Amino acid sequence: MARLQLKNVNKRWGSFVGVDNFNLDIADEEFLVLLGPSGCGKSTTMRMIAGLEDVTDGEIILGDRVVNDLEPKDRDISMVFQSYGLYPNLTVYENIRFPLRVRKVPKEKHDEMVMKAIHMTELEDFMHRRPAELSGGQRQRVALGRAIVRKPTVFLMDEPLSNLDAKLRVSTRAQIKNLQSKLKTTTVYVTHDQIEAMTLADRVVVMNAGKIQQVGTPTDIYDMPANTFVASFIGSPAMNLVEGALEGGTFTGEGIRVEGLPTGPSGNITLGFRAEDAEIVDTGGQISAPMYSIELLGEASMITWRLGGALVSIKTNKEYRAEIGDVVQASIPASICHLFDTASGERIAL
Amino acid sequence: MSSKATRQPPTIRIMATSFLVIWLLVAAFPFLWTLWGSFKVEGDFFSKANWANALFGTLTQAETGGSFTGAGYEGAWVQEEFWRAALNTTIVCVFVVTVSLTCGTLGGYALARSTHRYAFWFLLFALMFRAMPPITLVSGYLLPFFEWNLWGHLYTTVIVLVAINQPFTLWMLHSFFKNIPKDLDESAMVDGCTRFQAFRHVIIPVMWPGVITTGLFSFLLAYNDFAVTTMLLSKENQTMIPKIASFLGTTQTKGNVMFAVSAVVSATAPLFVMVMFFQRQIVSGLTAGAVKG
Amino acid sequence: MKHSSFFWFVLPSTLLMLAFIAFPIVSVVSQSFYTAHEQVVVQVKNCGPFGCSMETSVDQEATAALREAEPLGKFAGLDIYKDRNHLAFGEVAAAWVNSDGLPDFGRSLMNLPFYKAMGFTLTYTAVVTPLTILLGFFVAIAVNSVAKALKGPTIFFSLLPMIVTPLVGSLILFWMVDARGILGTGLQWLTDDPNLSVKASTGLMWIMLMVYGVWHAAPFAFVVFYAGLQTVNTDTLESAMVDGATRWERIRFVVVPHLLPLVTFVALIQLMDNFRVFEPIVSFQASAHATSLSYAIYNDLGGETRLLSSAAATSVLTIIGIAILLSPVLVRTWRDFDRK
């Protein structure tokens, strides 16, 4: 009932391109996350869906109607804003009731609907307070409650967790996931935090500079990044990327030499691998270089080298000790390596 | 002020304090002096013999029997009908403030929220209009106003003052609205409001601090105006400021300069009270609005 | 925001500004090219018992009809701009030829009404603006360095000269410097000249007007700078202190650069306001010694015969003056915006 399609959507301000030829088909009941660094066009895309920005080119189709020229109020959506947009002069109860009031929902239904939303967001104790008397987490829940009080076809959430502290973010994240699976409403969620994206999404859209970089499930994106941008954006720490040359299945860069790679491609190649896949060895490692730093993370230690221009890190057990400047070796088997074309940044299929 | 970087050695403190005391004397003394003097007779207020007469009211005592006299006030308010001017000023100020703010909040809100280029041009034109001395515009009003019989009425003056103040009001309210997060009206629009409903239900309840500050400045502009009111109002519709100016022409010859002095004190008193109650808003308007009337 | 909603929201303001600011400017410009109709004169043959004589008389009816038909008056082109009361090309040329040396030329120029007004307006603007900024800055620094207790009253009393109606504020000062007022008597005592009168001396009158200007405007500069001082970055101040900067160097390298944008802002506002100086000249009854462009317009409009065209021409010249004064600021604003 609420499939959301974006066809060749563009947003330009004068000569500046905000969103470039965006195509996406969001299924009913899907939880879709738009992920990217700030200024990549993800918020603009969401605001175009909401009707808060005009679409320069292309079509946005909600259900079976083109909504390009509809006012936000006529699109049957609800939205949670980054700074929540709570009405400071209204109580929690009245804030949540506001959409019902302005949409002329029959008065006798209000109380039941508002109370249901208040229960779902666990705001019973605060319902007669004003936003100024609430903590950040409570305000965030009021914004959520206001979004779910009626049954919209699409939920839009614009970085709803970015104003919360780290601990609260984890619990609210779980609450959002739980609410969405209960309500089964199509959801578009914007964030710059890749952990939020990985934990919440059915599908993730990674964006950069107004363009879609990759669309896929969290696992796809983690395991098979489509280009160096996605590789360096997803994962904590992000994927190590070393520039070098590939010749006859052997990759050579400063302080690193990996053999047994496919013989097909050659030339300037960027080699990528994840810190947790590699390990420190005493001899015969593919990396052999002076150590740049060692950091104790608690559950593990992080060893870093400086290879060419790039910092390369791998995780090892927490008991490992070495001095800065000592030559340390690490094994990088061909099986954990990803290859990217250095010039274009695109992934080379193995 | 606990930081060491902002603490001052005693010599500097003494210098700063004495400089301030001098400035305060310069700023406040003329008002206190005139207030005191307005209760004397002219011979004391302008004393050729001894300046201290103004303090002790030697001649006032000789002429009226007391150290203080309200003769100036009586002359101005009753004899010269200054109350009529005060009434006109009240009418003009009330209407100018109401109309200015009504038009200004609508326009200022739109200018703060529009991201289009023409909003910038609109503000730039308003800034240029703001720079026009009112008197140059007045010379453009007179002929059409005579032709269409609009000259002399209070309502013409109200509309003219509103229009002249509009660029300033727009700038100030525009910067106040910029400080109201746009998430607020956008969430109202997503919740089911039109742009105007969002303005009415969500923005109006939270805009009062900015509107009150802007209203104070609109009031000041209307209250203090001389160029427009003196040129566009007929004698019976005069407001306080042109009335005071006309005292200078007529009463001085009659030796009733004290009428003017007490009228001046009467016109200053409301402003004094205003500064007392709205000091914070005036300061915030001067700084936050980044514009001055 | 949608174009249509923007349009409806700004409509009332736009109409007001078009009708009462933009249209009057147009009307002033066109008025300045016309001059009042001369009276229609008719020759009447007057025959009496002692024979006939020709008499001239004013045909009131025809004059009124003509004025009714063309309220703007007779087209005069640039004549009004060129006459003695405005740019006075003829008189300036004559003065240039007849004068011996620049100072003498300047003196004859100051006898022409427009140049006299222009001279005072520019001097006033050039003197009052920087003095206002300096005084405001020092008061702000001083308030910032004294105990909190003095701050409230200082701000309260400092606001008064600015808030009070310019006409009223200047009257108050004028009465005090009157030869019989406290400051006037004080000046006489100081100079030991019992006949000293501010009203009678051009130089003293100019000084008094400018003193009033600074007195009136300094509080504005003070408030803006004081607010600016509250936002000086304490970390930067402290690091300057750790780096070994003296008190003066801290002001010079941290505080002043921080306030510089505000100085530009205050200067812009002050230029606009000082250029239109007007009310104090009315209050001080100073027109014999000092007039300004605004006062010249007021004078033309206020007389028995309202000299609309003359006022219009002065207005146009004033507007041109303001445009020149503001052009650097406007160009900069436009460039800043364009870069965004």
TrEMBL record, chain A:
Record flagged with keyword Cell membrane: yes
Organism expressing this protein natively: Litoreibacter ascidiaceicola
Taxonomic superkingdom: Bacteria
Molecular function per GO: ABC-type transporter activity; ATP binding; ATP hydrolysis activity
GO terms for biological process, alphabetical: carbohydrate transport
Phylogenetic lineage: Bacteria, Pseudomonadati, Pseudomonadota, Alphaproteobacteria, Rhodobacterales
Occurrences of domain ABC transporter (ranges): 4-234
Position of the signal peptide: none
Family as reported in the entry's similarity comment: Belongs to the ABC transporter superfamily.
Entry GO terms, CC: ATP-binding cassette (ABC) transporter complex, substrate-binding subunit-containing
Sorted UniProt keywords: ATP-binding, Cell membrane, Membrane, Nucleotide-binding, Translocase, Transport
CDD domains listed in its UniProt record: ABC_MalK_N
This protein's name: Carbohydrate ABC transporter ATP-binding protein, CUT1 family
From TrEMBL, chain B:
Source lineage: Bacteria, Pseudomonadati, Pseudomonadota, Alphaproteobacteria, Rhodobacterales
Family the UniProt entry places it in: Belongs to the binding-protein-dependent transport system permease family.
Transmembrane segments annotated in the record for this chain: 12-36, 85-111, 118-142, 154-177, 198-223, 257-278
Protein's name according to its UniProt entry: Carbohydrate ABC transporter membrane protein 2 (CUT1 family)
Keywords for the protein's UniProt record, in alphabetical order: Cell membrane, Membrane, Transmembrane, Transmembrane helix, Transport
InterPro entries: BP-dep_ABC_trans_perm, MetI-like, MetI-like_sf
UniProt GO BP: transmembrane transport
Mode of membrane association: Multi-pass membrane protein
Gene Ontology cellular component annotations, sorted alphabetically: plasma membrane
UniProtKB/TrEMBL annotation, chain C:
Species: Litoreibacter ascidiaceicola
The keyword Transport is assigned to this record: yes
GO CC entries: plasma membrane
Stored SUPFAM superfamilies: MetI-like (SSF161098)
Source organism phylogeny: Bacteria, Pseudomonadati, Pseudomonadota, Alphaproteobacteria, Rhodobacterales
The family this protein is said to belong to: Belongs to the binding-protein-dependent transport system permease family.
Membrane-related topology note: Multi-pass membrane protein
Key words, A-Z: Cell membrane, Membrane, Transmembrane, Transmembrane helix, Transport
Main location: membrane
Gene3D superfamilies linked to this entry: MetI-like (1.10.3720.10)
Membrane-crossing residue ranges in chain numbering: 6-29, 117-143, 155-177, 204-229, 251-269, 310-331
Domain ABC transmembrane type-1: 118-326
GO biological-process terms attached to the record: transmembrane transport
Location in or out of the cell: Cell membrane
Protein name: Carbohydrate ABC transporter membrane protein 1, CUT1 family
Top-level taxon of origin: Bacteria
